[in-house]
Design goal:
heterodimer, A: mainly alpha, 3-stranded antiparallel sheet, 3 strands, B: mainly alpha, two-stranded antiparallel ribbon, about 0% strand
Chain lengths: ~475, ~475
């Protein structure tokens, strides 16, 4: 009997204008999202690779060790993950470039030429957006009048004029309509994935396919939540207009208001001081340390200047000047070592503290929002699995760069030990070309989050989605069993 | 007669559940939107002031002008106060800049970069309330305006009298629109009242210019809702069944609000792609490296130094070498950077043109962002002004460098490596952003406002035509 009902639901609705229009819209959007996601990924990846190569090239021609290598530092670039084709996550806003300098450790930005303000203006069209906003709206559209509409039309009571059991009816209806909702999602998705997989330059590894499967599962659970919510409200109300109104408000709240409020609450409960307040301390310390450093080489430089003046006037002058220069350089180098070590340790310490505070705030925001909104739960789950979220992408990149800081500073210090003449106070110029490219890491410096960890982290979100859907379904069934069909 | 019809329309709708629920939701969202917007604004202003404060101290703590030039100034962009109403894309845009001798200034570190979790969910501001909640409400109000009355049978009854068709429609238009205005304007007033209570400083920052802009923004919102209202009436007078008009209107909503804007972006990317920065950058870097090595060669000429020291022109010589290097670097960057920026801007302009012509939602968004200063336009203007200021600052530093006392090595050393704090002229390191004139902003948005009005008129006219021919039986 249930099977008959399922078939009837599908057959009746498949040709309705509502279904036809939504199907067409879905196919177009899903394919568009996947194809543009693929193109975006390819161009961003090309950029990142080229930028890294250009940086390595620059390091082959360093003319000013102090300025170009120590003060300006080196830039490390983040390549986008292939799964950003499906879920763009925070790609548009997150840091794509890490910078390591000798004195300030690591800091991050979006290089101007990696930034795409057009994305900020229009927002990304990715699969995640389509499911979250459009398909959930369609889910509501399919269900708001599923029960209350039939009642209003008078067809509901006719069903029960026979020996049809209520239980069978509702189960059949639930299954049938859900299949209807899934078709325009699953079919274009499979087609789109195949197209993307066969695009040259894009390769999904086995790991990636598992993630894709899990992401699809998360999307299905999410749709189930809104679907069951729709059925539930429809079975609790007598008029479709009322159920639609309620569902619309719930949709607005869950997709926008609730998550935002959760983040704001977290910000109020775990505030993070602005970076500049913290930097102020650092700079004043920097100033006084630098003063101490300068004082310690003062004497040497004084002598050097004196020798400048006498250089022109005596034959020994030139030799004397060069010797003085040597002594000065050595003294400067020793003092500099002390100064630099202090400052870079302090710099790293400050960044670490700042990060910890930010982390606590992020964690609280995530917990609050995922518990109060299925949309947030979905976002975190798929962002994590696609490695494009706050934790699986931004955080991973920052950690990878931070891990690299030590290699860089060790290299810089060793180099200085071999070439003390590179540090010459005021203007520090070396005319020769230095090749420092060996310090530049290859792509392996960035370690992506392993599958096991991503799954572990998102398990809660899956549970929340499944549980919410289950509760809504249960209420829908119970409400229907007690529904006044007359 | 008309007045009776209008009154009936208003009464009919204000008492319904959908109006009450919407009204309550809108009040809550408007109040929270304004309060949260004010909170964010106050924080951003505080952050900016913090950064600027650091500025003066750090600069003064440097002991010579070369260091001062390289350490430079830390600037922070202060958002325009109307971002409390429309947050636009401000959170994605950089707000911090460095002005020094070396790096070309740029606005970095957007709010979302620092806390990417903010980027996961959008902002719930007034534009959001209008774009999503109120427009859906308008659809719910109008989808059965005509077709619903037909289904109920009341339409033919109304026309059984001597009431001309157009009066009925006009009554619906005026009555319905009044309901929409009530649902929007009242909450806005209440919201502003709340703001006066909780964030009087923010309201205090409103100039006459600001109030004018706010007025125009509210006007744009009202016209935007009018477009959806007219569209709703039109579709309702085309369809015999309310259910059909409902689906159609919802699809139109999805199309205008999400699909067209996003597809415009995709279209513009395909139609007007630009040369990747990397290839430009490689060329630029090569040129810079070459030029710099030539300039730096001058530093190695120690005899020149000695000569200049004797003639008392040491400071000037060093300063002019730095100046030359800086000018050269800027020239190369200008050539390549600006070229890149222009191409990028062209793509954005194309995307915006496509979007605004096809979607009233985009037209509304851009217009409001322009007026609220929360969009791309203010950002590019800010960057332009920062760049001019960068040149002024550099000139100032070079001036001071040339004035170093090099009459004798001891004195030169003192001014170069001493521990005396620098005397910095505040007036020359203060950057003040000049906001765009209200009149200029309006002239830039006149096109969008015009589009919205025309679209509303077209839909209204179309609904008249459709209703005149409507089968009311």
């Amino acid at each position: 009997m249930i099977f008959e009902i399922v078939k009837k639901e599908i057959r009746v609705n498949l040709t309705s204008p509502k279904v036809v229009i939504t199907y067409v819209v879905c196919v177009i959007l899903i394919l568009a999202a996947l194809i543009t996601g693929a193109m975006s990924y390819l161009s961003l990846k090309e950029e990142a690779v080229a930028q890294a190569a250009a940086e390595k090239d620059r390091l082959r021609n360093v003319f000013n060790y102090q300025m170009d290598f120590m003060l300006n530092g080196i830039y490390l670039y983040r390549e986008p993950d292939v799964l950003s084709v499906l879920v763009s996550g925070v790609e548009g806003d997150a840091a794509r470039r890490g910078r390591i300098t000798f004195y300030t450790g690591s800091n991050f930005d979006v290089s101007k030429y990696n930034s795409t303000p057009i994305l900020a203006i229009f927002g990304m069209l990715d699969l995640s957006f389509i499911v979250k906003v459009i398909l959930s709206l369609f889910a509501i559209l399919f269900t708001f009048d599923a029960i209350s509409g039939e009642k209003e039309q008078g067809t509901l009571k006719l069903n029960f004029a026979n020996r049809l059991k209520r239980g069978s009816y509702i189960v059949g209806k639930l299954i049938g309509n859900f299949i209807l909702l899934l078709i325009p999602f699953v079919l274009p998705l499979i087609l789109g994935l195949l197209i993307v997989e066969f695009t040259p330059g894009i390769d999904f590894s086995g790991d990636d396919w598992i993630r894709i499967l899990l992401i699809a599962l998360a999307f299905v659970l999410y749709l189930l939540v809104f679907y069951s919510m729709g059925m539930m409200v429809s079975a609790l109300t007598k008029r479709p207009v009322v159920s639609f109104l309620i569902l619309l408000m719930l949709w607005v709240f869950f997709t926008s208001v609730v998550p935002r409020v959760a983040v704001l609450t977290a910000q109020t409960l775990e505030p993070v001081p602005p970076l500049d307040e913290v930097r102020k301390e650092y700079f004043s310390e920097f100033g006084s340390s630098q003063e101490a450093f300068m004082n310690s080489v003062r004497g040497k430089v004084e002598e050097l200047f004196e020798s400048f003046r006498t250089a022109m006037n005596s034959p020994d002058g030139m030799r004397n000047m060069q010797q003085k220069q040597q002594e000065m350089l050595q003294g400067i180098q020793e003092a500099h070592d002390v100064f630099a070590r202090e400052m870079s340790e302090r710099g790293s310490q400050i960044s670490r503290e700042q990060e910890m505070k930010q982390d606590r705030q992020n964690q609280l925001a995530i917990t609050l929002s995922r518990l109060t909104s299925p949309v947030a739960a979905l976002d975190f789950a798929v962002d994590r699995l696609a490695k494009t979220g706050v934790y699986s992408s931004d955080e991973q990149f920052r950690d990878s760069v931070d891990d690299y800081v030590k290699s860089y500073t060790d290299y810089a210090r060793d180099f200085l030990n071999k070439r003390p003449d590179l540090l010459s106070g005021g203007q520090g110029i070396s005319m020769e070309k230095l090749d420092l490219s060996e310090v530049y890491p290859d792509r392996s410096f960035y370690v992506a989050e392993p599958l096991g960890e991503s799954v572990e982290a998102s398990i809660w979100d899956f549970a929340i989605l499944a549980l919410t859907a289950a509760v809504f379904l249960a209420v829908a069934v119970v409400a229907f069993l007690r529904y006044d069909v007359r | 007669m008309l007045r009776d019809i209008i009154r009936k329309e208003i009464m009919d709708n204000v008492g319904t559940l959908k109006f009450v629920v919407t009204f309550v939701v809108v009040i809550l969202l408007v109040i929270s939107g304004l309060i949260i917007g004010s909170k964010n604004y106050t924080e951003k202003v505080g952050d900016a002031q913090q950064r600027l404060g650091t500025n003066r101290e750090v600069l003064a703590a440097q002991n010579n002008w070369i260091n001062a030039g390289y350490v430079g100034l830390f600037e922070a962009k202060v958002p325009y106060v109307l971002t409390i109403v429309d947050s636009g894309i401000d959170d994605s845009l950089g707000r911090q800049a460095e002005i020094n001798l070396d790096i070309d200034t740029d606005l970095d570190e957007s709010r979302n970069l620092v806390s990417p979790i903010l980027a996961v969910f959008g902002n719930v501001d007034i534009t959001f309330v209008v774009k999503i909640v109120l427009s859906l409400f308008v659809i719910m109000l109008t989808y059965d305006a005509i077709s619903g009355e037909k289904e109920l049978g009341t339409l033919k009854l109304a026309l059984a009298n001597e009431v001309p068709r157009y009066k009925i429609l006009l009554g619906k238009i005026l009555g319905g629109y009044s309901v929409i205005l009530i649902a929007f304007i009242l909450p806005m007033i209440i919201g502003l009242a709340f703001m006066m209570a909780f964030y009087p400083d923010v309201l205090g920052a409103f100039t006459a210019d600001t109030w004018l802009r706010l007025l125009v923004i509210v006007g744009i919102y009202v016209v935007y809702l009018g477009v959806f209202f007219a569209a709703g009436l039109f579709v309702s007078s085309l369809c015999q069944r309310s259910a059909t008009s409902f689906i159609v209107l919802l699809m139109i909503w999805v199309l205008f609000v999400t699909i067209i804007p996003k597809l415009s972006l995709v279209a513009a990317e395909r139609l007007r792609p630009y040369e990747s920065y990397t290839s430009l950058q490689t060329k630029a870097m090569k040129e810079i490296a070459q030029g710099r090595s030539e300039i730096l060669k001058e530093f190695s000429d120690q005899s020149r130094f000695a000569q200049a020291a004797q003639k008392g022109e040491l400071a000037e010589m060093i300063a002019s070498i730095f100046e030359k290097q800086s000018e050269f670097q800027q020239e190369v960057l200008d050539k390549y950077d600006r070229q890149y920026e222009q191409q990028q801007a062209a793509q954005i302009t194309l995307a915006e043109s496509i979007a605004r012509s096809l979607s009233p939602t985009s037209a509304m968004s851009f217009a409001v962002q322009n007026l609220a200063g929360s969009g791309w336009a203010r950002q590019t203007e800010y960057l332009d002004q920062l760049r001019s200021f960068q040149q002024e600052f550099r000139n100032y530093v070079f001036e001071e460098m040339k004035n170093l006392d090099d009459s004798d090595p001891q004195k030169f050393f003192e001014s170069f490596m001493g521990d005396k704090e620098l005397e910095v002229q505040q007036s020359r390191i203060n950057f003040q952003f000049r906001e765009e004139d209200f009149a200029v902003t309006v002239s830039r948005t006149i096109w969008d406002i015009g589009l919205l009005i025309v679209l509303a008129m077209v839909f209204f006219a179309a609904s008249f035509v459709a209703f005149i021919r409507y089968d009311v039986r």
